[in-house]
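Weekly modeling sync, notes
Attendees: S.R. (lead), two postdocs, one rotation student

Agenda item 3: backlog of single-chain predictions. S.R. asked that every request posted to the team notebook include the full sequence so nobody has to chase files. The rotation student volunteered to paste the first one in as an example of the format we agreed on. Action items at the bottom.

Example entry:
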Amino acid sequence: MVRTRLEISRFHSFAVMTVAIGAIAILMTLPVPAQTFTTLHSFTGGADGSEPFAGLSMDSRGNLYGTAAYGGHGNCSFGSECGTVYKLQHNGSNWVFYTLYEFGGGADGGTPQARVIVGPDGNLYGTTTNGGAAGKGTVFRLQPPPNFCHAFSCPWTETVLHSFTGGSDGANPTYGDITFDRAGNIYGTTPFGGSHDCGVVYKLSPAGGTWTESILYTSTCEDGGELYAGVIFDGAGNLYGTTSGAETSNGNVYKLTPTGSGWVESTIYHFQFPGGAYGGLTIDSAGNLYGITFFFPQIYELSPTSNGWRYQTLYSLGGYGAFAQPTLDAAGNLYGTGALSTPEVFRLSPFNQIWTLTGFNGSAGDEPFSNVIVDAGGNLYTTASEGGDHGGGVVFQITP
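Predicted structure, as returned to the notebook:
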């Protein structure tokens, strides 16, 4: 199995001692507004799963979908915990939890560490870090039962769209979201594989019931390091992503520009501290990019100018940053999570006013690394990868 968040913890002491070196934005910290913290599900480590590293997606009906990296099927081919995909659905004022799929760790994949995305066709799409035909991870689709199901919980049907070989096509997709273009093609990243084993940016194109992979970019390690984070589009069809850094680089933010002969990579910003970013980017209507660095956790903005890109630190967190991109609401507020030394869910206003929306303890959940979903009523939804009633993590809601 490839390294995960648990291995990353060995860097914690170094990061905590040196984070003060970074540029610290001067912000107004305001009192925490009134809020209600509600646990929607506490993972048991059984059929429901355990350790939801990734966050959530919401469909048009307000249902929540997510993944748990471990737990689930007891006959996993490389251990007893291969992970699950789950759904949380409103039932009156309550939420009902359903396990949609339990990974077996064989050809179907195992250990999903990125969230599932609701595709244009209403099905769920995601990746597994391990398993698949070559054991190097998969891209998969989950479809609901074709007919009405009378049972309490009916499993969905999985189709593997691509099994990574660990060669030039990439290996072990980890935290990064996949994304769709308007034609229904899928774009994503892997942190390993490729000609230098630092990952690739790939495209999957559907045709005649099959999916064909093409490689848009292969990291050389020296040009920024591993590609843990996913990619996003701007209005012109360019792709943006981040790298985690390597021995010769602190990591960077890169741009992929489509041309008649392929995609051209350019670096738009080099991070100033080791550790780079494991989470991706969010873009606003003006083309500004927002992200969170990891070992020296800063919420940052990159703004296009006539001379390139301007980097601004908006706020510095303690501990670690997130494995996910920040969320931007219609009012321009940024939401996200930080973990370890000061676990928190935050909101950062356009006026650089910071609210820490909740603190954590073991029973409520611990170590949140995921994205934050904001619904039309301003309620927030996310996950914590550990803690809860059974120690396997939680899904929770914050009502302002």
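Discussion: group reviewed the output briefly. Residues 5-23+46-332 form a domain with the Neuraminidase fold (CATH 2.120.10).
Action items: rotation student to repeat for the remaining queue; S.R. to check formatting next week.
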